[in-house]
């Protein structure tokens, strides 16, 4: 049987029959993908070309939302804040995670306990409770200042000063080094011991071994962690939302991209603009990721 | 194959089960859709409000009593703090699943009414489903937008300034005079600072109302005009911000970082309650909540400072109830509102939770039930209400205007802009939004 499209339907039917069970089992996921990702993304792409306040129907305005961003000082500020956050938090967090995992990888007794303990902050790191805790720690009368006072330094009001607020959030991000640490640990286990033995015989010191064996052998893992953490950092929302009371203050110093997007969408009812912002963020992350991938040829070492 | 078949069947049955569960949820809703008086049939309506834990307890009990009286109506409750409340409602209304009865406020009502999200209540009031016979004309009018009733007052309130006489006595500072001017206010703040306590927190920015609104109105202007334009001149804003800037430079009010830290603090932790400031602007109905936080002294309320030879700034504030346009049970929703604002069982619990009851009869009824600070609040409201003049409703885009107000005020606070620069920037932004 040949249908107008020139496809043999009997083959199609048999293929369908063969795969029906697979599709059935996949269906929860497929439905989820469609309902929770594909359709909303399509809608948001459409809204990004409209003026839409959620109450009246969207009005097509072409690229106006996108061109409006360039002239929006708060938008530019939010990019500046987000880039600062990404540039500081990701390298710091990764170095910290690498350092801890190298220390943990020295055949410590009770490794499992340490590993679990150091992972704990990551478990609730992005949560509201911890963001609130941060407010307490770095507030004007917070623990950090009490500690500083005990050694004779007068602390500032870290969270409420425009100059320092973002750095408290960076510290919060670094503190959640658990998941890259676990991945690094797994990576470290995968480095053959012979390499270190050979280096020992050649008389290379620990430092030399770290830079000439450990680091190069870990570069694929570093690449993976780098990309995952950068994407995560671009999308950070909760800490800034809670710590600044949803405002991105003081003086927009913690106005993360996603926070501004949220304000535009749910406080100012500018769904169109917010959708356009979401797509611009997607493009930005895609570019950054592509650049890192392109550069990886120069610095990632695959053992083959 | 047999094993496989049983697996297949069990999978199908799970899918069916989910589908059935989904249907049953939908059908119960549609079955009750027609329920007019709802006799015999179970009807479910949803009611949302903003507030703190205390209020949630009170409103839950009121709803319980309503359900007892009307066993065929079930009221689902949704509540949260003020900012989340509005964000959630905006999303719900847009998504077409807003609660039937929502708490409303003057600052937002025009926005929702003009976007056709709220039910025009004229018919339900005329038919007597919602009885407003005992309501003051001014109170009824305060629930109208463009001449139509969109909301019914739960309680009305007025803003004032609270202080603790015990503290003033201890410091040896005389109490604020009820007929004070903003100059007196500034002097009082400095006087308090000289005794070692900040006079007040920094109210220069934040929300547009009530503080700046009072000032604008006293200067013969308002936040907005009736046709939705900006209602005040740049000079007024400069005067307002300069006054605060001056106090800040003299360190009579907190610095920027300290103010920011307390910006979103809950009542129990704000600067006034924690003893960092001596005077605080509050809505009168919250006086008793503040009083609970003070072991020593009985708090007093004074009206707003005046502008010399200026006009009255006073306007009625309050909390209201509205029915959303898409409500499937407007009749039951109206019954609920009527119960909430007119039934003794309800007012007995409400007392003056969000202001003096809208119904004059109920305001009399709750009087003997009130604690001293609540009584004081009612006296204050009744004393000031005659000075109140109507206030123009906020136009579309008010949230963005408020954001610009906040942003530019903090730019001054942190020394990023001078008062003139900030006022300039604000006017440009606001006029751009409200064009």
TrEMBL record, chain A:
Domain of life, source organism: Bacteria
Biological classification of the source: Bacteria, Bacillati, Bacillota, Bacilli, Bacillales
The keyword Transmembrane is assigned to this record: yes
Classification via InterPro entries: ABC_transporter_permease, MetI-like, MetI-like_sf
Species assigned in the record: Mesobacillus foraminis
Key words, A-Z: Cell membrane, Membrane, Sugar transport, Transmembrane, Transmembrane helix, Transport
Protein name listed in UniProt: Multiple sugar transport system permease protein
Principal subcellular localization: membrane
Membrane keyword on record: yes
One protein family per Pfam: BPD_transp_1
Membrane topology: Multi-pass membrane protein
Regions crossing the membrane: 21-47, 83-104, 116-134, 165-188, 209-231, 271-294
PANTHER family: ABC TRANSPORTER PERMEASE PROTEIN, ABC TRANSPORTER PERMEASE PROTEIN YESP-RELATED
TrEMBL record, chain B:
Annotated InterPro entries: Bact_solute-bd_prot1, SBP
Taxonomy, superkingdom: Bacteria
Record field: transmembrane: none
PROSITE patterns: PROKAR_LIPOPROTEIN
Keywords for the protein's UniProt record, in alphabetical order: Signal, Sugar transport, Transport
CDD domains named in the record: PBP2_TMBP_like
Signal peptide location: 1-21
PANTHER family (alphabetical): ABC TRANSPORTER SUBSTRATE-BINDING PROTEIN YESO-RELATED, ARABINOSE-BINDING PROTEIN-RELATED
Protein name: Multiple sugar transport system substrate-binding protein
Organism expressing this protein natively: Mesobacillus foraminis
């Amino acid at each position: 049987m040949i249908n107008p499209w020139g496809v043999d339907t009997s083959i199609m039917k048999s293929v369908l029959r063969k795969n029906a069970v697979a599709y059935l089992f996949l269906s929860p996921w497929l439905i989820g993908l469609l309902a929770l990702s594909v359709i909303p993304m399509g809608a948001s792409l459409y809204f990004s070309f409209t003026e839409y306040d959620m109450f009246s129907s969207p009005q097509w305005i072409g690229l106006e939302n996108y061109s409006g961003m360039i002239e929006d000082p708060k938008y530019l500020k939010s990019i500046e804040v987000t880039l600062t956050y990404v540039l500081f938090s990701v390298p710091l967090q990764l170095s910290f995670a690498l350092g801890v995992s190298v220390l943990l990888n020295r055949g410590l007794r009770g490794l499992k306990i340490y590993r679990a303990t150091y992972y704990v902050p990551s478990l609730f790191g992005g949560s509201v409770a911890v963001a609130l805790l941060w407010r307490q720690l770095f507030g004007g009368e917070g623990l950090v200042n009490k500690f500083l006072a005990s050694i004779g330094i007068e602390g500032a009001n870290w969270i409420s000063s425009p100059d320092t607020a973002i750095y408290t959030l960076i510290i919060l991000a670094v503190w959640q080094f658990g998941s890259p640490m676990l991945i690094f640990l797994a990576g470290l286990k995968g480095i053959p011991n012979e390499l270190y033995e050979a280096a020992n015989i050649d008389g290379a010191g620990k430092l030399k071994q770290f830079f000439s064996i450990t680091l190069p052998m870990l570069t694929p893992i570093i690449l993976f962690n780098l990309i995952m953490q950068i994407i995560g950092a671009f999308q950070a929302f909760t800490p800034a939302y809670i710590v600044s009371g949803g405002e991105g203050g003081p003086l927009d110093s913690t106005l993360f991209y996603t926070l501004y997007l949220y304000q535009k969408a749910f406080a100012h009812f500018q769904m169109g603009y917010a959708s356009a912002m979401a797509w611009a963020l997607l493009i930005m992350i895609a570019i950054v990721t592509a650049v890192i991938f392109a550069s990886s040829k120069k610095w990632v070492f695959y053992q083959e | 194959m047999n094993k496989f078949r049983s697996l297949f069947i069990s999978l199908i049955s799970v899918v069916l089960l989910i589908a059935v569960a989904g249907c049953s949820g939908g059908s119960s809703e549609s079955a009750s859709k027609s329920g007019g008086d709802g006799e015999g049939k179970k009807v479910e309506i949803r009611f949302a409000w903003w507030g703190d834990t205390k209020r949630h307890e009170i409103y839950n009990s009121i709803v319980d009593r309503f359900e007892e009286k009307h066993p065929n109506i079930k009221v689902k409750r949704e509540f949260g703090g003020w900012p989340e409340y509005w964000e959630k409602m905006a999303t719900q209304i847009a998504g077409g699943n807003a609660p039937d009865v929502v708490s409303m406020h003057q600052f937002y009502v025009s926005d929702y009414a003009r976007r056709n999200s709220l039910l025009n209540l004229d018919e339900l009031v005329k038919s007597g489903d919602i009885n407003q016979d005992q309501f003051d004309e001014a109170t009824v009018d305060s629930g109208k937008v463009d001449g139509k009733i969109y909301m019914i007052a739960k309680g009305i309130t007025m803003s004032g300034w609270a202080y603790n006489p015990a503290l003033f006595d201890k410091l040896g500072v005389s109490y604020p005079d009820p007929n004070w001017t903003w100059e007196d206010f500034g002097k009082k703040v400095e006087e308090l600072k000289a005794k070692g306590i900040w006079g007040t927190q920094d109210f220069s920015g934040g929300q547009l109302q009530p503080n700046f609104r009072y000032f604008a109105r006293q200067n013969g202007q308002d936040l907005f005009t009736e046709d939705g334009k900006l209602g005040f001149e740049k000079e007024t804003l400069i005067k307002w911000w300069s006054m605060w800037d001056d106090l800040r430079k003299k360190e009579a009010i907190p610095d920027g970082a300290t103010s920011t830290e307390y910006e979103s603090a809950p009542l129990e932790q704000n600067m006034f309650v924690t003893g960092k400031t001596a005077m605080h602007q509050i809505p009168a109905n919250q006086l008793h909540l503040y009083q609970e936080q003070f072991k020593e002294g009985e708090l007093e309320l004074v009206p707003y400072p005046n502008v010399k030879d200026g006009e009255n700034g006073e306007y009625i504030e309050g909390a209201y109830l509205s029915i959303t346009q898409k409500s499937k049970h407007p009749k039951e929703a109206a019954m609920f509102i009527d119960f909430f604002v007119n039934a003794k069982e309800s007012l007995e619990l409400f007392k003056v939770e969000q202001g003096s009851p809208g119904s004059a009869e109920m305001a009399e009824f709750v009087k003997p039930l009130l604690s001293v600070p609540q009584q004081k609040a009612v006296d204050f409201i009744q004393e000031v209400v005659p000075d109140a003049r109507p206030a123009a409703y906020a136009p579309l885009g008010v949230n963005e205007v408020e954001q610009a107000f906040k942003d530019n005020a903090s730019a001054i606070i942190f020394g990023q802009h001078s008062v003139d620069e900030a006022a300039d920037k604000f006017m440009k932004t606001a006029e751009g939004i409200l064009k």
